[in-house]
Amino acid sequence: MEPESRIRVALERNPYDVIIGSGQLARVGDALSALQVRAGTRILVVSNPDVADHYAAQCLSSLEAAGLKPVLLTIDAGEEQKTLDTLRIILDAAQHNGLERTSLMLALGGGVVGDMTGFAAACWLRGIRVIQVPTTLLAMVDASIGGKTGVNHPCGKNLIGAFHQPSLVMIDPLTLRTLPAREFRAGMAEVIKYGVIGDPELFERLEQAEDLSDPGRMTPELLQTILERSAQAKAAVVAADEREGGRRAILNYGHTFGHVVETLTGYGTWLHGEAVAIGMATVGQLAVNKGLWTDSDQQRQLTLIQKAGLPTAWPSLNIDKVLDTLRSDKKVRHGQLRFVLPDAIGSVLISDQIRDDDVRQCLTSQH
After folding, report:
1. DSSP 234
2. 193 catalytically annotated
3. Pick the catalytic residue: 164, 255, 300, 331?
4. Which pLDDT value is given to residue 335?
């Protein structure tokens, strides 16, 4: 049996494990039995067609071997599908298949599938358990851990949602073999984020790697390190601040500008991780302009983002629309913008002292 590592998300209520290791997909049923999920329990497995083609049969057979009753629902994924209409499809399937309070939902896929399945589980019968089995790098290191679920609104990303923690997260690096290269690179944006916000050792380890754009050119050890350290970073922040009252906001590094890019260019133009990469490059320049961090640290960040095959250039967007979109962001407090700004590799601060003129100057200088 391949070695596995377990990372505890130590919440006061409903703590859970993140299990990382090759071959985990074949052990989902055993893991649920270990959680005292009873034989005969109904499980709605939600996936998308591409992932289901590769991995649904293995997942379903593992659940069936444990005496569970899974049924597969495939939905179209992609950021543009992350809507209330798709949520309704999942809830209709829950009703059609007779999901009860003791039933579960299981998300088999990327961040979009995970977010929507988690939100559906939060809504169905006022909340049933959900298992996250992420198959993309971005979902493995970020979206599947922490309980933030939701769908998009035409005016902004993830404006409709709920906090609903999973009962278990199972990460199988072997599923990355079939992940399109562009999606793998997008996930690396979140990994680089963890280095900047609190793990300088991870940042340096990434700097030493020859290639960050293709899992096939990484050693299994490097991939396991990336998954473990990212999950540990996310788990530590989430355990300290489950509902984003304070410290958890550092996880939004790069996301404030990134969400603007996604909203104004239309969901699906840029992958989430690509938009976050642009956002990190932009907010890094903002921090340089404000005298918070050095040109050399900004250059190290840009070099690493580019090494992962990710974009850094701010797209051509109307600045007034950018400012309007920023003000509609979930992270606005009392009408005041809040930015996560870097002040060293491995250290960030949360500031509400950024003015519209600061944003204008930064974005103008980015072209």
Report:
1. H
2. no
3. 255
4. 67
Cβ-Cβ contacts under 8 Å for 35 (sequence gap 6 or more):
167, 168
pLDDT at 333: 64
pLDDT of residue 211: 87
Parallel, antiparallel, or unpaired: how do β-strands 16-20 and 5-9 relate? antiparallel
Half-sphere exposure of 88 (CA within 13 A, CB side): 3
244 is catalytic: yes
Flag residues of the chain having pLDDT under 70.
1-2, 242-245, 330-335, 367
Cβ-based neighbours of 296, under 8 Å, separated by 6 or more: none
Catalytic one among 190, 242, 262, 274? 190
- Of residues 13, 126, 334, 355, which has the active-site annotation? 126
DSSP per-residue letters across 7-33? EEE--SSS-EEEEE-TTGGGGHHHHHH
Residue written as token pair 């949360």: 350
CA distances to 241, 249, 255, 323 from 329, rounded to whole Å, are: 20, 13, 10, 10
Among 259, 262, 300, 331, which one carries the catalytic annotation?
259
* Annotation says 190 is catalytic: yes
**Is 164 considered catalytic here?**
no
Domains of the chain: 5-178 (3.40.50.1970), 189-365 (1.20.1090.10)
| 278 class by beta-carbon count within 10 Å (0-12 exposed, 13-18 middle, 19+ buried) | buried
